[in-house]
């Protein structure tokens, strides 16, 4: 504490300057990313754990900027949230995901589900529910085929509005899942009062399930709790067959991860689907 004189945090260090310049630059690039067509959705298959039957995919955004290369969402989604750009970006994601889902139906003859990530600010935007409704109807997608993934973080600051929006989405028939389940330090009470359908066990628990007793116990407990509340469970971040075997033994419903496929551009995803079904 002694070393932290006033000057040490007030001074604008070269690192901070660089950081904020970088941020400003990224922000201005992000503002133009949609109109310049730099955003793309990747898709990662979600399968039934028991028999590896394909049920759908999660859409994961990628930003392809000429100057920065392929930027991962962990780098720009927080910035998009802070600046409000997540509203147009989120709208683009939902529309692009629904359009893709329609194309898959034509390409594969199957009705796969599509999971879309929703960030807190986007969720609270007054036009959100109507926007979802519109994306579905414009693309002729039944509501039950869309799964919205909402982070536990959002549910944590639970407000009347959160409850109402969830209720409206549920009544529409959209499926709702809790993303990053187990990482939010939230009370579990919300699970019984909110209309969720699915818990997504965070990949940080799945990662060490074969080596860490505690992680194995947590995963087991989450699956059992979810099932006794009539919720389904998706394990994300499944990277090898031992993890999958463990999840099967615990009765986990769905699995997603590099073991099956990395998130991939649409064309590659469809190739994977064709190969998987042979
Ligand atoms: P998430 O929703 O928890 O997505 C899962 C992340 O785990 C993805 O990272 C995915 O590529 C990665 N992953 C999948 N399988 C494995 C595996 O077997 N092992 C490991 N180590 N990782 C795996 P990604 O695509 O970089 O996305 C990061 C986060 O960015 C997402 O975490 C999500 O919170 C956010 N995000 C992505 N797309 C969107 C979007 O369209 N809208 C919003 N609001 N957020 C998004
Ligand atoms: Ca997700
Ligand atoms: Ca529901
Ligand atoms: Ca996660």
UniProtKB/TrEMBL annotation:
EAL domain location: 23-277
Domain of life: Bacteria
Any GO BP annotation: signal transduction
GO molecular function, one term: cyclic-guanylate-specific phosphodiesterase activity
UniProt protein name: cyclic-guanylate-specific phosphodiesterase
Full-sequence range covered: 525 to 802 of 805
GO cellular component: membrane
Keywords assigned by UniProt, alphabetized: c-di-GMP, Coiled coil, Membrane, Transmembrane, Transmembrane helix
């Amino acid at each position: 504490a002694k070393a932290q004189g006033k000057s040490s945090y007030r001074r604008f260090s070269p690192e901070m300057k660089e950081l904020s310049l970088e941020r400003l630059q990224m922000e201005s690039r992000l503002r133009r990313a949609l109109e310049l067509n730099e955003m793309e959705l990747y898709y990662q298959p979600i399968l039934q754990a028991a028999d590896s039957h394909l049920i759908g995919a999660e859409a994961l955004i990628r930003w392809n900027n000429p100057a920065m290369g392929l930027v991962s969402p962990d780098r720009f989604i927080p910035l998009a949230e802070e600046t409000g750009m997540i509203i147009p970006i989120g709208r683009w994601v939902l529309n692009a995901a629904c359009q893709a889902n329609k194309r898959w139906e034509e390409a594969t003859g199957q009705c796969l589900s599509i999971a879309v990530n929703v960030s807190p600010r986007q969720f609270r935007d007054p036009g959100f529910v109507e926007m979802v409704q519109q994306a579905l109807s414009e693309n002729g997608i039944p509501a039950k085929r869309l799964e919205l993934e909402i982070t536990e973080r959002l549910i944590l600051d639970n407000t009347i509005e959160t409850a109402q929006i969830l209720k409206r989405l549920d009544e529409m028939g959209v499926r709702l899942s809790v993303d990053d389940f187990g990482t939010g330090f939230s009370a579990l009470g919300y699970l019984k009062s909110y209309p969720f359908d699915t818990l997504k066990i965070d990949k940080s628990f799945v990662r060490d399930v074969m080596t860490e007793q505690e992680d194995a116990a947590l995963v087991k407990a989450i699956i059992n709790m979810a099932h006794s509340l009539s919720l389904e469970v998706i394990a994300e971040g499944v990277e090898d067959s031992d993890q999958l075997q463990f999840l099967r033994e615990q009765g986990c419903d769905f699995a997603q991860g590099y073991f099956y496929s990395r998130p991939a551009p649409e064309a590659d995803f469809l190739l994977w689907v064709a190969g998987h079904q042979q």
